[in-house]
Design a protein that fits this description.
This protein starts with a strand and ends in a 5-residue tail after the last helix. α18 crosses α19. It has 2 domains: 205 residues, Nucleoside phosphorylase domain (Rossmann fold); 273 residues, UbiA prenyltransferase (Tetracycline Repressor, domain 2), CATH 1.10.357.140. The chain has 22 helices and 10 strands. By secondary structure, it is α/β, with parallel strands linked by helices. The chain has a 5-stranded mixed β-barrel with strand order 5-9-8-6-10. Helix content is 58%, strand content 12%.
Length: 490
Amino acid sequence: MIALILATLEEAKPFLTRLPAAKIAVTPFATFQFGMKSGTPSGILVISGMGPDNAAAATDYAIVTRGASVVINPGICGAIDESLPPAHLFHISEVSDGDAVLLAKPGQPVPLPATAWSELPAARLATVKEPVFGGTPRALLEPHADLVDMEGYAVASACRKHGIPCHLLKGVSDHADEAGRETLQRNLARVSESLADEVIKQLPKLDPPGPGLIARMADFVKIEHTIFILPLLFAGAWIGAGGHWPGWRLLFLITCAGLGARSLGMAMNRILDARLDKLNPRTAARELPSGRMTPAMAWGIAATGLAVYLLACAALGPVCLKLSPYPALVLISYSLLKRFSCLCHFGIGLSLAFGPLGAFVAVSGGTEVTAPIILLTLFTFCWISGFDIIYALQDIEADRRNGVHSIPAALGFNGAQFMALIVHLVAAAAAIQLWRVTNGGLPSGLALSVTLLAFCTAYYQKLPLPVRFFPVSAIAGIAASLIPLLGGLR
């Protein structure tokens, strides 16, 4: 995805009109999205504010939060070389820290690669914190640069730090002399329009190839998260078979039902939350809000998941088919809970808890449950509900700002962690009791120990929140599924 970094709204106006672009965020930077129509380059435009500090922060935001893979910094500049006329455009071949030059500590300029604008004349750029309008600063910069601005070096340095391609395109608004302020205001609109025309003309050449359809679909439904629920399904099937091998056919159909159900649930979550995802900087780069996937494609994935799930349930027998609407309704609607209840985390817990319970019913052929499957279902419900609370700690401010109900938004960081701990203590108690009723044993005891250790790791504060959710949650779930599978082994 392309990111355009511009200092001011005045410089950005021609871009916003010609692209066109829609505002998707106000803080921490005014951010606009363009290229929502099929076949057009997609990206964002970020208004950084003037100065290198703002430009560096906006570039970090575009790359880290918004997922930019190419950065372009078009903007006005002053010409130190008086032979460079106002209103002319230049591609920057190297950029240096002008403030270091002013302090007599010049470092190595940052070279920039050839760009799509190589037919434009090249120029050297220096970036400073304060505008240059004649005097000593202009004289000191003259041996080192042809142009001077207030953002380019910061943008290039941030891109270099992240290993992201950077392109600087500058238009001369003045000669950085005593008359520069007046000249700048007179030329600002004209130069900005020329920059917009030139940049937009070349955008198709810079638009990075996105992931293929299969990769986008896999990321859309988080296929890696789907896989870690399968061991719990197999554990439910094992319990349903009385602690014996249930057979390849049943396991295949249970896997199909699980993958279909999970795809349905994730697709509906993304579809129903597309507007909220666009408002949250952490989620704005997802497929739907970023435009990398159309709503029609998302609905197609949801419909396919539902079809696979129902067909698998039908093949598993009349009892499974008759009961199949209940998990499906939860999967389709659980993401709506965040609109009115902070208990929304238990919606996803309920949807996943149907997994091992459904596998048990598929193998046993009836609805008469046993203590092991009750404990495994309770574990699954509390396990993922608690981890979902931890995961939502990332979005406290965004949830409060956008009216999303969640336990972290309601209770704050510490309160939410305490609530998650209580839920996980219930899950841990269920896992311990499951080990007991499945005849214990050293191998299953080791699995139990891994589960409990993973729960403890989830509250290690120095561990990043995304890691505490995945893979730590996956380790806890997979290890717990081994408790009944290894039960009785000595």
